[in-house]
Input
Amino acid sequence: MPVVAPFAMAALLMCLSRVLDQRVSNALAVATAVGVIGVCAFLFVLVPDQGSIVYWFGGWSPEIQGALGIDFAFDKIGAGLALLTAVLASFALVYGFGYYQDAGPLLNVLVLVFLGGITGMSLTGDVFNFFDFFELTYIAMYGMSAYSAGDEHALNASISFIIVSSLACFLFLFGITLLEAQTLRLNMAAISVTLAQSPARGLAIGAFALMSAGFFIRAAVVPFHFWFVDAEGTAPTPLGLLLAAVGVELGLYAFARMYWAIFSGLFQHFAVLRAGLVGLGGISSVIGSVMCLNARNLKRLVAFFTVSHLGLFLVGVGLLSPLGLAGVSLYMLTYAPAVSSLLMCVGILVARFSSLSEVELWGRGRALPMTGAIFAIASIASIGVPPLGAYTGRALLLRASVEAGYQWIVAVSILASSLTGAALIIAAGRVFLGLGPRPARRAGEGHEAGRGKGQEEPRGLHGRRYAPWFMLLPAAAGAGLSIAVSLVPELAAKAEAEAARFANRSAYLANVLQAAESVTPPTGQEDVVLPLGVWSGALSTVLAVGIALAVLYRGHLPSWLERNVAALWQPPLAWLERLHSGRVDDYVTMVIVGTTLLGGMFFAAFR
Amino acid sequence: MDKVPYLTAGWVFLAGLYGMATSRNLVHQVMCLSVVQSATYVLLLASGYREGGLAPIMIGARPDNATFVDPVVQALALTDIVVGAAVTALLLAIIIRVWRVKHVLDPDALTRDES
Output
């Protein structure tokens, strides 16, 4: 029902687009999204604690046909993800009121298709069904990115987005087909059971490597993240919001779902796999945060901010422990609304001043105090200043990594959050307060700042004193939601229990195939506000403010310090900048390199 | 199980990837993407093939104990083709717009900064 409704409404709106008034169409779309929120919330409540719901379509349950049918199987994490998506999609819809006056209901249609796809992905228990929804969400995003593309940079970004993402789909499909060839099943639980009895598992590992490459492309993990930054830098805000807040994270959800439902029993050298994934996440996080501090295009800044956080998410998933997963799901729950709110504020700036460049916008944001305030709150939430916003999830994540023996992740997390935090503070300070001297244009800046112009943003906002309510309201709601979620007591313990359920392969199999009564593992309800989370969070906040002030008032620093820092900072940065060339063929090469690496890693873990 | 179709699929996949990584023309690049996609069709059909299998038409008279090729993967291939056609069309439409704006099809010329 939550899946079908958005598709049906999308089709209806498309058919009636000539007849319906734009306002009616908007209202219908928002009503659908709100309806989906309601249904998802209902499902979320309906799922028993640490249990799951299985529904076989058309009554093709496994007793009759041996798991040939298609099922939906989900637990609180899946249902929660669907709920979160529905909330964000309704933000995007409301925010999109002012967009595309001449496009009719196209944007609404695409957002609804996206919503349907994501809810489908979160709930399904069938591999191919999963793949279909995976592709559907992509198609909705292709449409949005292509529609608004005005100049050649935006067009190029959307071409590389489509090409690289299609590759992700094909890799995923290749993996599925190999699995199918081996097990003759498409149901996740059935595949898992068949594989466990099958002697030749090497092929399955190969299949998993291909699938994971597809997921990581989607999840914008370094070295697969290039398309994301380009697309995010030029995308219209409603798309950018959906993409950064849930679109890419779904790649990691896909990985986690496939790993725990199907493959978790297959690896001999668990530690190798874990080290590889955590390492990849750490690298992602550091590169993302460095590029984030360097970005001057506000949307690219948020994009790298996302890459950096996704790196940490990958660390959490890659720990392959329920605790890490719990950390990620909490982190995600607070992070997604906050980042969507940040993007909406940036979108308001673009609409008002037709610029995305921190340099051009210097001090001009003072005209928009409300937007500035929301931007500040959203920054606080997404940086995770203890005890607000993303803080709870990150504390849990850090505890999981320390328990698994990855103490260095704490350092990575502090580095990443202080750099990205500094980037946000600098941006906010420059744009909304006019802090520091007017920043000078740097060499090569025209290139970066140029991307993102020529996009279609709502017109008729230029003369207005205040941003319209439909843009401010969702932005404020996003920031508020993030903070509010973090203040719910006992959430961490609950997330932990649910994650344990998600990661329990035998319980999943038992539930879907109704073989035996599932045994829910007992989880310790430990104290979550631990000193580690507090001091690391506080330290990164202080560091972020420090770095931000240092960059803003660069002129006041002793010159030897500035020179030395520049000497350390510039060469690797230049190298990274060169890698982000914007050329599709380079990106494809990176995909090949990354896929080979992943394959190697998986086989090392298997042998 | 015959290995030839699987090797073919792998070969076509890699050939397409190579083309995409080295292409100097956007249209050519999109065609290479289609080549990569064709590899998935070959693989899908190969995985569903049964030695001596019949077409999976389950209505009407059929010999007893007959084997059928797997209809599920054929349906999947069909889905794949539909999606592929849509994506290719979209990409070509964007490329036409690129041509209108810049009159180039070389990805290099597209990203070079002219200012």
Observations:
- The first helix of chain B runs from residue 4 to 22.
- Chain B has four helices and no strands.
